[in-house]
User: What shape does this take?
Amino acid sequence: MLNSRYLEQLHPQKLSLDELVAQSVIFFVAGYDTTASTLSFATYLLAALKPRYSRQMREEVDAAWKKTMQVLVFLASKVNSVMKLYNE
Assistant: This one.
């Protein structure tokens, strides 16, 4: 396990507040992009190759969504308004 003295020898300088904020933004954006791509590809594969699994997962997501949206009333109303614009 790495101890703090060893880490200080490797990186003796500390990040400024601006650098810390910039690094945090980069981590957030990079994580969001890769997660979105992975979920999109996984959803496509499930829909194309395993429709039964896709249906089951959608039912689970719908149930969790309804439960969450009961708590987030304002957010739910705005999401529903947007969904009305692009209803299939």
Notes: Residues 80 and 87 are 10 Å apart (CA to CA). The chain has four helices and no strands.
